[in-house]
C-alpha cells in the first residue's frame, strides 16, 4: 500500500504544526490553573469541546488521597480510562496544582509546598487547549504547537497520533500501579519498531522480544483514523501493520492502543452508541502484538515474562496469566511479576540421602528453556524425573519428549506453558506439601514389613537415647547453651564439632586466615570423594555470653539468598566453639585472581564489579534486616567455577562485636579499605561498605593493590593517585597498556567516577549501593563530577 508523498507530508504537517488551528478547542488562557482540595476531590478539569476528553487531576484507584495529572476519556460510564500522565512515578497529595503561568507562559505542576514537580519545557505559550483528538497542546499566538502530549506519550496512543524516531511508550507496573513498568515499545532512529523488557527499578534494557525488523531510517508509527496502526516509511509506504481494527470505524467507536503491564500491545475499541444511550459497555479487544509473548519473551539474564519460579500462559481474555507451580506461592500476590517462592526449604547437599524428603510434581506442556546446568541424551521421561530427584542441586528437570533431559537449578526462569511445548517438566517439592505423589514417588515408598520393624526399632532406640541425652544436657548447669534449628530457621544445618572435624580431616587443609578466624577445606563425604565442597570457618575469641547475638546474626545471614553472596549452609555452637560452614568456591579469592601476573579480561572485570555491587545492594537494601559487611576487600570476594563473584564473611562484624562505634584497637576492617569514620567517634552505617567498594573498584579497574609501598610516593596510595589522574585528565596513565579497557574508555570513566564518589571522606556524600548500581549500569547520569580527595 502506498500513500502519496504530498498527502503524508500534509498529514504530518497538520498534526505537528497546526493541530490547534485545525481542531475545535476552547482556549485555556494564561493564569489558568487546576487544583485539588483538602477533601480529596478535583475542583475542575479542562474538557475538550466535545467533552470526550479531560485534562486534570485523577485520584489513584488504590488511594484516593493521591493524584495524577492526567488525560482521560471523560464520558465513558462506570470506567475511567487514563491516556497520559507525566507524574506516574510520583503521585501528589491534595492541594497540588497545575498552572499555565502568566509571566512566562509555562505549564507547571507543583506540590502543596509550591515545589515544581514537572514542566514540559515549552516557555512563551500564549494559551493551551484540550483537543477532541485527545491531545493536550501548548500553542504560540500564531497557533503553532510548542508542545503537545502526543509527542510525549505514556503507555497509550490514539488515532492521528504518531510515534516519531526516538519516541517510546512504557507500560505501567501493574493494573493498579501507574509507575513505570517492565516493558517498553520504542520507535528507533534506525527505523525499527522494537519491544523491550526492562528491569525494575534501574530501567536496564534486556534483549528485544519482538521487532518489526524493517530498518528504514526516519520511519514512523502512525495510528490512522481508519483504525490501523502502521509502520510508515518516509515515502509513505506501509512497512508493517502492528494492529488493525478497521472493521470498527472511528465514527462509531473510540480507539486506543495501549502497551499493557504484561508487555503486550493491545488495540481496544469502545462503542460510542452506548455512551449516547447512557448505557455501560466494556473496551473490546480487537488485535494485539506479539501474538504470544510467552513464546517470544526469553531473557538471559532475567526472569522472563512472569518472574522466577513461575510460568506464563494466557487466560480466556487473552491476558497473560502467570502461575506458580504446585508447592510454590507468590512472593507478592499483588505483584505477580516478582515470581514465586517455594513453600518449603530447598534441598541441601548436606543431606547424605539424595532425594530424601522430596518428590517430583509432573506438569504437562511446561518448559523452562534457559539456564540448563546439565543435559542428558538419550534419556527417557522416568529417568529424567529420577535424575533430578537424586541430585541435591536440581530444582526442576524438563523432558523434551524426544530423548533430551535438562536439569535446572533454583531459581528457574522464563517458564512458559502451552500446546506449543511438546515435553513435560518435573518440579521438586517437599513431601510435606500434602501433594499427590507421582508414580515414581509411590514406587519409592513401598517397603517390606521386615524393614518396617527394623526401622521402627531403630527410631524407637533413637528417641530413647535422644530423650536421655536431652535430660542429661539440661540437668548439667555448667553445660553451655546450644542453638537449635527451631531458633535459626530451617535453612541452616546445626553441625556437631565432631562432624566438622571429620569433614575437614581434622582441620588439616587451611584455605586462609584473618582477624576473625581460620578457614579450612571441607568434604561432605571425605571417605568417598577427594573434591572439596565446603569451606569451614573456625571463629576465635568468642565468649559464651553472646549466644543471643550469635543466634540473631546467624539466622539473618542464613536467610540471605543471592547469586552474588557465598551461601551459609550451617554452623556449630558447641560449648565455646563457634564455626560457620559455607559453600566452597573453586576459583578462590578475587585477590588471588586479580593480582596475579596475568591481567583478567576486561569484560570479566566489569561483570565482577557489577556482581559485587548487586550483592552489597542486597545486603544493604533488600534483606529483611540490614547487614553491614564492614570488611569489603578482594580477599573477601570469592569466585565460583564460572568466575561469578560471591561476597563472603558478610555480617561477621555484628557477630564478633557488640559495639560497632569503637574506633581504637577494635577497628573492624583492613588497612587501605577502612572508611574514615572508623577513626572518629561516629556511628557506623552502610556507607562504610560503600567506601570499601569504591576502593575495590579502583583495584579491579587498574589491576593493582590499593597500597603499594614499593611504588613511588605519588602512586603508593591508589585512591589519591586515581583522584589526581582524573582531575588532570590522565586516565590513560592508570591503565598501563590495558588495551581492552582503553577501547571502552566511556565505561572506564563512568566506573571511575562512581568509585571516586564512593570514597568521599564524608559518608553523606557517598551514594547508596542502590544508587551505585544505577550509575554503574548507566541508568542515571553521574552529575556533578566527584570532588577531589
Automatic annotation (TrEMBL):
Residue stretches making up the Bulb-type lectin domain: 31-151
Family matches, as CDD domains: PAN_AP_plant
Enzyme Commission number: 2.7.11.1
Record-linked Gene3D superfamilies: 2.90.10.30, Bulb-type lectin domain, Phosphorylase Kinase, domain 1, Transferase(Phosphotransferase) domain 1
Domain Protein kinase residues, every copy: 505-780
Cross-referenced Pfam families: B_lectin, PAN_2, Pkinase
Annotated catalysed reactions: L-seryl-[protein] + ATP = O-phospho-L-seryl-[protein] + ADP + H(+); L-threonyl-[protein] + ATP = O-phospho-L-threonyl-[protein] + ADP + H(+)
UniProt-annotated location(s): Membrane
Zinc found in the keyword field: no
GO MF terms, alphabetically ordered: ATP binding; carbohydrate binding; protein serine kinase activity; protein serine/threonine kinase activity
Keyword hit for Zinc-finger: no
Signal peptide from the UniProt entry: 1-22
SMART domains cross-referenced by the UniProt entry: B_lectin, S_TKc
Annotated membrane topology: Single-pass type I membrane protein
Chief localization: membrane
GO cellular component, one term: membrane
InterPro entries given in the database record: Bulb-type_lectin_dom, Bulb-type_lectin_dom_sf, G-type_lectin_kinases/EP1-like, Kinase-like_dom_sf, Pan_app, Prot_kinase_dom, Ser/Thr_kinase_AS, SRK-like_kinase
Ranges annotated as spanning the membrane: 446-472
Superkingdom as given in the UniProt entry: Eukaryota
Keywords for the protein's UniProt record, in alphabetical order: ATP-binding, Disulfide bond, EGF-like domain, Glycoprotein, Kinase, Lectin, Membrane, Nucleotide-binding, Receptor, Serine/threonine-protein kinase, Signal, Transferase, Transmembrane, Transmembrane helix
GO biological process: response to other organism
Family of the protein in this entry: Belongs to the protein kinase superfamily. Ser/Thr protein kinase family.
The protein, known as: Receptor-like serine/threonine-protein kinase
Organism: Dendrobium catenatum
Lineage: Eukaryota, Viridiplantae, Streptophyta, Embryophyta, Tracheophyta
Amino acid at each position: 500500500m502506498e500513500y502519496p508523498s504530498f498527502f503524508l507530508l500534509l498529514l504530518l504537517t497538520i498534526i505537528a504544526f497546526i493541530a490547534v488551528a485545525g481542531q475545535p478547542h476552547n482556549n485555556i488562557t494564561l493564569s489558568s490553573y487546576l487544583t485539588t482540595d483538602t477533601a480529596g476531590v478535583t475542583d475542575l478539569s479542562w474538557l475538550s469541546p466535545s467533552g470526550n476528553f479531560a485534562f486534570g487531576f485523577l485520584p489513584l484507584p488504590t488511594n484516593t488521597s493521591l493524584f495524577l495529572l492526567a488525560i482521560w476519556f471523560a464520558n465513558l460510564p462506570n470506567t475511567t480510562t487514563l491516556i497520559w500522565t507525566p507524574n506516574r512515578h510520583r503521585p501528589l497529595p491534595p492541594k497540588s496544582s497545575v498552572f499555565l503561568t502568566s509571566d512566562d507562559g509555562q505549564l507547571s505542576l507543583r506540590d502543596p509546598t509550591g515545589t515544581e514537580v514537572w514542566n514540559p519545557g515549552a516557555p512563551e505559550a500564549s494559551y493551551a487547549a484540550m483537543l477532541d483528538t485527545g491531545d493536550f497542546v501548548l500553542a504560540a499566538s500564531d497557533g503553532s504547537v510548542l508542545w503537545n502530549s502526543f509527542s510525549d506519550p505514556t503507555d497509550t496512543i490514539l488515532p492521528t497520533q504518531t510515534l516519531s524516531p526516538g519516541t517510546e511508550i512504557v507500560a505501567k507496573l501493574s493494573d493498579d500501579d501507574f509507575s513505570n513498568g517492565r516493558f517498553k515499545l520504542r520507535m528507533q532512529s534506525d527505523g525499527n519498531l522494537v519491544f523491550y523488557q526492562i528491569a525494575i527499578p534501574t530501567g536496564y534494557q534486556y534483549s528485544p522480544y519482538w521487532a518489526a525488523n524493517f530498518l528504514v531510517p526516519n520511519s514512523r508509527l502512525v495510528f490512522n483514523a481508519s483504525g490501523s496502526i502502521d509502520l510508515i516509511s518516509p515515502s509513505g509506504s506501509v512497512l508493517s501493520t502492528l494492529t488493525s481494527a478497521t472493521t470498527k470505524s472511528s465514527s462509531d467507536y473510540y480507539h486506543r492502543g495501549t502497551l499493557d503491564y504484561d508487555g503486550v500491545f493491545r488495540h481496544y475499541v469502545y462503542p460510542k452508541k452506548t455512551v449516547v444511550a447512557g448505557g455501560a459497555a466494556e473496551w473490546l479487544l480487537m488485535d494485539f502484538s506479539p501474538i504470544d509473548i510467552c513464546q517470544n519473551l526469553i531473557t538471559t539474564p532475567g526472569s522472563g515474562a512472569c518472574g522466577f519460579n513461575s510460568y506464563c500462559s494466557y487466560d480466556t481474555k487473552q491476558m497473560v496469566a502467570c502461575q506458580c507451580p504446585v508447592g510454590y506461592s507468590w512472593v507478592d500476590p499483588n505483584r505477580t511479576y516478582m515470581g514465586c517462592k517455594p513453600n518449603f526449604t530447598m534441598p541441601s547437599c548436606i543431606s547424605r540421602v539424595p532425594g530424601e524428603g522430596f518428590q517430583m510434581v509432573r506438569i504437562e506442556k511446561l518448559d523452562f528453556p534457559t539456564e540448563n546446568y546439565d543435559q542428558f541424551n538419550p534419556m527417557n521421561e522416568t529417568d529424567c524425573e529420577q535424575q533430578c530427584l537424586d541430585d541435591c542441586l536440581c530444582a526442576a528437570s524438563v523432558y523434551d519428549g524426544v530423548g533430551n533431559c535438562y536439569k535446572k537449578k533454583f531459581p528457574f526462569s522464563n517458564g512458559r506453558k502451552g500446546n506449543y511445548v511438546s515435553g513435560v517438566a518435573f518440579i521438586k517439592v517437599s513431601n510435606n506439601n500434602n501433594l499427590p505423589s507421582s508414580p515414581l514417588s509411590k514406587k519409592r515408598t513401598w517397603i517390606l514389613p521386615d524393614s518396617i520393624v527394623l526401622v521402627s526399632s531403630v527410631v524407637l532406640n533413637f528417641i530413647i537415647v535422644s530423650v536421655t541425652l536431652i535430660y542429661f544436657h539440661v540437668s548439667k548447669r555448667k553445660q553451655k547453651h546450644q542453638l537449635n534449628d527451631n531458633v535459626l530457621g530451617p535453612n541452616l544445618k546445626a553441625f556437631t564439632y565432631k562432624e566438622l572435624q571429620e569433614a575437614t580431616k581434622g582441620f588439616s587443609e587451611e584455605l586462609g586466615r584473618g582477624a576473625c578466624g581460620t578457614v579450612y577445606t571441607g568434604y561432605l563425604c571425605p571417605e568417598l570423594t577427594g573434591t572439596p565442597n565446603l569451606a569451614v570457618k573456625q571463629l576465635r575469641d568468642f565468649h559464651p555470653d553472646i549466644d543471643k547475638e550469635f543466634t540473631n546474626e546467624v539466622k539473618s545471614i542464613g536467610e540471605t539468598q543471592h547469586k552474588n553472596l557465598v551461601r551459609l549452609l550451617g554452623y556449630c555452637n558447641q560449648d565455646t566453639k563457634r564455626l560457620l560452614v559455607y559453600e566452597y568456591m573453586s576459583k578462590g579469592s578475587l585477590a588471588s585472581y586479580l593480582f596475579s601476573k596475568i591481567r583478567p579480561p576486561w569484560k570479566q572485570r566489569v561483570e565482577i564489579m557489577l556482581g559485587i555491587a548487586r550483592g552489597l545492594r542486597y545486603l544493604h537494601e533488600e534483606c529483611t534486616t540490614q547487614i553491614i559487611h564492614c570488611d569489603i576487600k578482594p580477599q573477601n570476594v570469592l569466585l565460583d567455577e564460572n568466575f561469578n563473584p560471591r561476597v563472603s564473611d558478610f555480617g561477621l562484624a555484628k557477630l564478633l562485636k557488640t559495639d560497632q562505634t569503637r574506633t581504637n584497637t577494635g577497628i573492624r576492617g583492613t588497612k587501605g579499605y577502612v572508611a574514615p569514620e572508623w577513626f572518629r567517634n561516629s556511628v557506623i552505617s552502610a556507607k562504610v561498605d560503600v567506601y570499601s567498594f569504591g576502593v575495590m573498584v579502583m583495584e579491579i579497574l587498574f589491576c593493582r593493590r590499593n597500597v603499594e609501598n614499593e611504588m613511588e610516593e605519588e602512586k603508593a596510595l591508589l585512591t589519591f593517585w586515581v583522584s589526581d589522574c582524573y582531575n588532570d585528565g590522565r586516565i590513560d596513565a592508570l591503565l598501563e597498556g590495558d588495551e581492552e579497557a582503553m577501547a571502552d574508555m566511556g565505561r572506564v570513566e563512568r566506573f571511575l567516577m562512581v568509585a571516586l564518589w564512593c570514597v568521599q571522606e564524608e559518608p553523606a556524600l557517598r551514594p547508596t549501593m542502590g544508587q551505585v548500581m544505577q550509575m554503574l549500569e548507566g541508568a542515571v547520569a553521574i552529575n556533578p563530577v566527584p570532588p577531589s580527595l
